[in-house]
Write a structure and sequence with these properties.
By secondary structure, the protein is α/β, with parallel strands linked by helices. It folds into four domains: about 5-125, Rossmann fold (3-Layer(aba) Sandwich), CATH 3.40.50; about 145-310, 3-Layer(aba) Sandwich (Rossmann fold); about 310-380, Helicase, Ruva Protein, domain 3; about 400-445, Arc Repressor Mutant, subunit A (Orthogonal Bundle), CATH 1.10.10. Helix content is about 45%, strand content about 15%. It has 18 helices and 14 strands. It has helices spanning about 10-25, 35-45, 60-70, 85-95, 105-125, 145-160, 175-185, 200-210, 230, 245-260, 285-290, 295-300, 320-335, 345-350, 355-370, 400-420, 425-430, 435-445, and strands spanning about 5, 25-30, 50, 75-80, 100, 165, 190-195, 235-240, 260, 270, 275-280, 305-310, 340, 375. The strands form four sheets. A five-stranded parallel beta sheet has the order 2-1-3-4-5, sandwiched between helices. A five-stranded parallel beta sheet has the order 7-8-11-6-12. The chain has a two-stranded antiparallel sheet with strand order 9-10. Helix 2 (about 35-45) packs parallel to helix 3, helix 3 packs parallel to helix 4 and helix 10 (about 245-260) packs across helix 12 (about 295-300). The longest helix is centred in the first third of the chain and has 22 residues, at about 105-125. Residues about 385-400 have low confidence and may be disordered.
């Protein structure tokens, strides 16, 4: 019989939950505050801790930190009012399995508890299995401080089971980072399912993600078809370009993240699923939420652990090792002899801003490897890298309309002022003769 500990200072809520969960077959203990919950959890093992956010003596956040430190096997579910949902997300970053908003719905509560217990069972089973991986450890190339920081974050995140949101421009390597998290996690021997949400027509995305029952709609196959979530069972699903999904898919995805269950399109059976979600986007979801195009509750669920992947122009030191890696890769694939890049060609690459980021570097080097006759890649073998990039470098030519060049120059000045001030916005504003509010606005405008 699984044991559940309830920390809730409201007597009616606490006693009601104890009675309801006892009727469901759980062994339930109720306490009145966080301090009592911590002491109880120290003396006896509990499978699940269900805790309120606001309590006397020790609040829910502090309780989560203390219990995860002394009883890491206990899965924690936070109960909170919607007004404090950002705090609930912080709780998940500190180790909570999930959170529920008040007033509680019994169906959602039971689904969350079942999901927490199932995830615990799967973790134990997978960690006991041989230490092999269903996918190779991806090649994330880079020696800069930014990339080292991402390496460290991947190592920490991989050990948890929390939802991760990868943020960054197209072509920065978000898919590789998602694969690295999976390869280092306890789910490494289970499927990794990569879904490009933007490449699937809007009318088909729901059925592709969640599957269809036979005869679900006119033209549907006469067989039940599993969706991507079912195919990723016990593993990881990577939802790329998550900012492109429609409102109806947002609602269903939110339910999966909250309750770990869904129905196939045209079906009524509740399917429980244990799967880790990693999402990625090149859009500003906060702006989309403010404009009413994206659900705030879904954004909070996705943004539990954000990892910002920087554009290549912000870590230029990684361009040479990336070029060397792609030269080796495409000489081997094409059966060519050893090649290297000339100093002149490398200088051109270092001075270019690569608006397509790592993907653009790869395409350029693949082309250069094939076109070069000798052992060295020369400037003439590179594609045209002198056209106006998305962001003009300090050494590159200034091109475009007057409005474009004015914005480019303004961005460069702000970047320089921020570098010289060590990131201090007040000092940067003083150096440029503007207000701090103006600097903050420009930082957001130019996505600095």
């Amino acid at each position: 019989m699984e044991r559940i500990l309830i920390a809730e200072d409201d007597r009616n809520t606490r006693e009601g939950l104890v009675e309801l969960l006892s009727d469901e077959g759980y062994e339930v203990t109720g306490v009145t505050d966080g301090e009592q919950a911590y002491e109880t959890a120290r003396k006896r093992h509990f499978d699940v801790l269900l805790t309120d956010m606001k309590m006397p003596r020790v609040n829910g956040l502090n309780l989560i930190k203390r219990v995860t430190g002394t009883s890491p096997e206990t899965s924690i579910i936070m109960m909170t009012a919607f007004a404090t949902v950002e705090t609930a997300v912080k709780a998940m970053r500190d180790g909570a399995f999930s959170y529920l908003t008040k007033p509680l719905k019994m169906e959602e509560l039971l689904a969350a508890i079942q999901g927490a217990l199932q995830e615990k069972q799967n973790r134990r089973r997978m960690e006991a299995s041989p230490k092999s991986s269903s996918i190779p450890d991806p090649d994330i190339i880079g020696e800069s401080e930014q990339i080292k920081g991402i390496f460290e974050r991947v190592e920490k995140v991989a050990r948890a089971n929390t939802t991760v949101l990868l943020l960054g421009e197209s072509g920065t390597g978000k898919s590789l980072i998602a694969r690295a998290i999976h390869a280092k996690s306890f789910r490494r021997d289970r499927p990794f399912v990569d879904v490009s949400c933007a490449s699937i027509p809007e009318g088909l995305l729901e059925s592709e993600l969640f599957g269809t029952e036979k005869g679900a709609y006119t033209g549907a196959l006469n067989t039940t078809r599993k969706g991507y979530f079912e195919r990723a069972a016990d593993g990881t699903i990577f939802l790329d370009e998550i900012g492109e999904i429609s409102g109806s898919v947002q609602v269903k995805l939110l339910r999966v993240l909250q309750e770990r269950r869904f129905e196939r399109l045209g079906g009524t059976e509740q399917l429980h699923i244990d799967v880790r979600v990693i999402a990625a986007t090149n859009r500003n979801l906060e702006d989309a939420v403010a404009e009413g195009r994206y659900r705030q509750d879904l954004y909070y669920r996705l943004n539990v652990i954000p990892i910002v992947v920087p554009p290549l122009r912000d870590h230029r030191d990684d361009i040479p090792p990336l070029i060397d890696y792609f030269i080796r890769k495409y000489t081997e694939e094409n059966g060519l002899g050893d090649k290297c890049i000339s100093d002149d060609a490398l200088e051109i690459c270092m001075g270019y801003d690569w608006p397509g980021n790592i993907r653009e570097v790869e395409n350029a080097i693949e082309s250069a490897v094939v076109l070069s006759d000798g052992e060295r890649i020369l400037p003439g073998h590179l594609p045209n890298l002198t056209h106006a990039p998305a962001i003009v470098s300090n050494t590159g030519p200034v091109q475009g309309t007057l409005k474009d060049t004015r914005g480019q120059a303004e961005k460069l000045l702000i970047q320089q002022a921020l570098r010289e001030s060590g990131g201090n916005r007040t000092k940067a504003a003083e150096a440029l003769g503007v207000t701090v509010r103006t600097i903050q606005y420009k930082i957001k405008k130019y996505d600095l």
